[in-house]
Design a protein that fits this description.
Blueprint (H helix, E strand, L loop, with lengths): L1 H4 L7 H19 L3 H10 L4 H15 L3 H172 L1 H35 L6 E4 L4 H6 L1 H9 L13 H19 L7 E4 L6 H12 L2 E6 L9 H14 L5 E6 L15 H13 L7 E7 L7 H5 L3 E4 L5 H21 L6 E2 L4 H11 L5 H17 L4 E2 L1 H21 L2 H6 L10
Parallel strand pairs: 2-5, 2-6, 3-4, 4-5, 7-8
Antiparallel strand pairs: 1-3
Helix pairs in contact: 11-12, 14-15, 14-16, 15-17, 16-17
């Protein structure tokens, strides 16, 4: 509307001149007035030029063809200003409401803080009151304890005084009794001494009479015995028939005693060689009367059993199996053709099947076997030489041929030059060398050792073949695990053993997993793993063997094997190189 009021509109020149003239007049008039008068005149001064311009604009607008649009536009602008004003009013009211809400929130927060602070103050007050109560109670307890301790102390002092008085009374009574007893004993001794002095002559006379009587009795007995013996010798010497009869009887008696002793020795040695077994032999397949009486069924089965494969139930490296099979065939043909047996050394880590193969070899060849342990020789001391000779004498009496298996042979067949061995053990070694100096057709010598490097050179000279039994490889371990899984798990489960059930899983794949886990374990350790599976079943609540139980037992056995290997000292590692596969860490 500025154009309507004449703002920003150029004025006519005459108006400017008039205005200029009027201004000059006003300035001249104002200069003549005081400051207060000028202020008063300024209040009543009115510029009519604006009204004139407005009137001119109104006339111009009325004459214009856009007057109506301008009016409508001014109305719309006014309406817009009113709406904006209403919007501002509402915004102000909203701000006021928001301020009220915020004020309420602040009030509520203040009240909450006040309540929290009051609660905290109350808690602190309660805690303080509780502490005061606890302190008062503790003080009361302390006071009561002091009173009780004081009463107890007084009671103990009273009891101690009473005990001291009682002890003094008892000691006084004992002292008086002891004095009375001593006085009584002194009186008795005096009376007895007096009586002894009075009866001394009588007692001495009684002692003399008893001694004289005893001496007389002894002399009479000696005289009687001498008379009887003398009469007997006189009668015998005067009659020569009685002398000859007595001499012949004594001679026959002595002869009978010595003959019976010799016959008994011969009979016992014969029985021992034919029926019994020497002391050093721990296990044998030969007939032994005591063993047959103890285990008749086992003996009958042994008699009725047929020769089996030497490698049946024995899992070894294929090359080793081929070599042992050749040994078994050669041994069997040697027995059939009554040839000379070859001596064999089997060495390697413990639990790799040396003893098992020796038994199988004897059964396959149709020979008897006998097992002795080298550790049994040293404890015999001086009797070891006799024991060695008895073993070889007994071996020569076998009609089928004997396979003599010496386990842990290095225990008494050590080097005589470098080893410190006793004289008894040295004599036993010499006896063993003497009896094995030549090959024969009666017995076959098989030695087993974990440390063959400790053998005496003379022992090595008597060995015809050496076979090394190594730890099973991956394929051998898997075969062993399958064998023992079938023996200790599948067969008992199939037979319906009590509290023995088997969960369904892939047994072959499980054995393959365990073969990788059981690296470095021997055949004996793997067989013990089979027994541990049975133990796991018996220890379970439902008696079911699961795959997890099988694998857990295998991992436990492998961990125990590693622990055993870690326990080996450096000296043991050097002595048992075969245990660690020849690797010395």
């Amino acid at each position: 509307m500025s154009w309507l009021l004449g703002r920003n509109r150029p004025q006519p020149q005459q108006d400017a001149a008039l205005a200029g003239g009027s201004d000059d007049e006003d300035k001249s008039a104002d200069s003549q007035l005081s400051k207060a008068e000028r202020k008063a005149m300024e209040a009543y001064r009115f510029d009519s030029s604006a009204l004139e311009r407005a009137a001119d604009a109104a006339r111009t607008l009325e004459r214009s063809r856009h007057a109506r649009e301008a009016l409508e536009l001014s109305k719309l602008q006014e309406l817009t200003r009113q709406q904006e004003y209403q919007t501002k009013i509402k915004e102000y009211e909203a701000h006021v409401e928001q301020a009220k809400v915020e004020q309420k929130r602040i009030d509520h927060e203040e009240r909450r803080k006040t309540l929290v602070e009051e609660t905290k103050q109350q808690q602190q007050r309660a805690q303080y009151q509780d502490q005061l109560s606890r302190r008062r109670y503790e003080d009361q307890l302390t006071q009561q304890q002091r009173v009780q301790e004081e009463n107890l102390r007084k009671q103990e002092e009273s009891v101690a005084r009473q005990e001291a008085m009682r002890r003094q009374t008892i000691e006084h009574e004992i002292e008086m009794k002891e004095k009375n007893r001593l006085k009584l004993l002194e009186h008795e001794m005096r009376v007895k001494a007096k009586v002894d002095r009075e009866n001394r002559d009588i007692n001495l006379e009684q002692i003399r009479l008893k001694a004289q009587e005893h001496r007389t009795t002894v002399l009479e007995s000696i005289k009687t015995a001498g008379t009887v013996i003398g009469a007997g010798f006189d009668a015998m010497l005067t009659d020569w028939d009685k002398v000859l009869t007595a001499a012949g009887g004594l001679s026959l008696l002595a002869l009978g005693v010595y003959a019976a002793r010799g016959a008994t020795g011969v009979t016992s040695r014969y029985i021992e060689s034919r029926i019994g077994k020497p002391t050093l032999v721990g296990e044998t397949s030969r007939f032994a009367l005591l063993d047959a009486l103890k285990h008749p069924i086992r003996y009958i089965r042994r008699l009725t059993s047929k020769p089996t494969d030497a490698l049946q139930g024995v899992v070894l490296n294929p090359k080793l199996e081929e070599r042992l099979r050749d040994v078994a065939i050669a041994t069997k043909n040697t027995r059939i053709n009554r040839g000379l047996y070859r001596n064999i050394l089997m060495h390697g880590p413990p639990g790799t099947g040396k003893t098992m193969f020796a038994k199988k070899l004897a059964e396959h060849s149709g020979m008897d076997y006998a097992i002795m342990t080298g550790g049994d020789v040293a404890p015999m001391g001086k009797e070891a030489v006799t024991g060695i000779h008895k073993v070889f004498d007994w071996s020569h009496t076998s009609r089928r041929g004997l396979l003599l298996f010496v386990d842990e042979a290095d225990a008494f067949l050590r080097k005589r030059s470098s080893e410190h061995i006793s004289e008894d053990l040295r004599a036993a070694l010499n006896a063993f060398l003497y009896r094995t100096s030549e090959q024969n057709e009666k017995f076959m010598l098989v030695l087993a050792s974990n440390t063959p490097e400790q053998f005496d050179y003379a022992i090595n000279d008597r060995l015809d073949e050496m076979v090394e039994f190594t730890l099973p490889g991956l394929e051998e371990r898997e075969r062993l695990l399958r064998l023992y899984f079938d023996k200790y798990v599948l067969k008992p489960a199939a037979e319906g053993a009590r509290r023995f059930k088997l969960e369904t899983f892939d047994y072959g794949a499980t054995c393959s997993k365990m073969a990788n886990v059981c690296e470095g374990m021997s055949g004996r350790e793997i067989s013990k793993l089979g027994v541990s599976w049975q133990a796991a079943v018996y220890a379970s609540e439902n008696g079911v063997l699961t795959e997890k139980m099988v694998l857990d037992r295998a991992r436990s056995a492998a961990a125990q094997h590693k622990q055993k290997m870690a326990w080996l000292s450096d000296h043991e590692r050097l002595d048992h190189k075969s245990v660690t596969g020849g690797k010395i860490e």
